[in-house]
Amino acid sequence: MKFVDKVAIVTGAQTGIGLAIAQRLAGEGAAVVLADIADATPQARAVQESGGRAIAVKVDVADEQSVQAMVERTVAEFGRVDILVNNAAIAAGIQLRPFEQIPVAEWRRMQDVNAMGPFLCARAVAPHMRRQQSGRIVNITSGTAFKGALFMLDYVASKGALMTMTRSLARELGPAFITVNAVSPGYTLSEGNLANKDFLASYREAAIAARALPRDGWPADIVGAVAFLASDDASFISGQILAVDGGSVYH
Ligand SMILES: NC(=O)c1ccc[n+]([C@@H]2O[C@H](COP(=O)([O-])OP(=O)(O)OC[C@H]3O[C@@H](n4cnc5c(N)ncnc54)[C@H](O)[C@@H]3O)[C@@H](O)[C@H]2O)c1
What we know:
The chain is an alpha/beta fold. The protein is built from nine helices and seven strands. Residues 11-12, 14-18, 36-38, 59-62, 87-93, 113, 140, 142, 185, 187-188, 190, 192-193 line the site of nicotinamide-adenine-dinucleotide.
């Protein structure tokens, strides 16, 4: 029970990797806010029914007021914020296409959700973490930004931004003893990815072939690294990007 008395916000926690992270943190004692643009009430209820503390909060991470309201609700409900996991993204539903075919409006929305979202969330929790002189921010990036993956330039650009933001934010928040790290999953069989047949057909076998450990990756494979970086065990680690991909990207 690493997270007794800790309060965590996990964005994009209605499904997939975010839900698995929320369940893990709650299972280890954290009070967890499942924050999502989709309704995560049933998922929060399931956590409560298994003995955990959780609420669902609707948020659009690309909307400043909505993010502010999410953090205010968290503090009203649980009194503090110790952990922020920036997981929400336009991700599993991604449409693969040559870069010339990406509409400008979709490019902008991708950056707004995947890169500005974590900026807004970090900015909203920072005053609380600074006051506490402690905090953990874990950004969920992607191995695609290391590899130069094909046919998702808007997504790769957003995750590259999040990787570099991780390093700069670590330096800005370090004086308040707030750590900022990233976990970089490889191709992972979240529910959303399993439903995206085009993506599955293009990526699944290739991802396995590129790994030191030649098997599928699942949301459960990602959560241990996130829990570690969110814990006291990682109090002297900041600005790092931890690839959790079966040994695919070495950096
Ligand atoms: N699954 C993979 O192969 C893989 C690989 C590398 C990185 N990642 C990253 O891991 C994270 C989770 O991946 P996943 O496969 O579970 O994704 P997913 O698409 O299944 O889930 C993303 C969640 O974010 C929510 N969301 C989307 N836009 C939002 C917004 N504007 N505000 C709030 N919530 C919003 C969605 O409703 C959904 O619940 C993402 O950051 C993704 O980029 C995934």
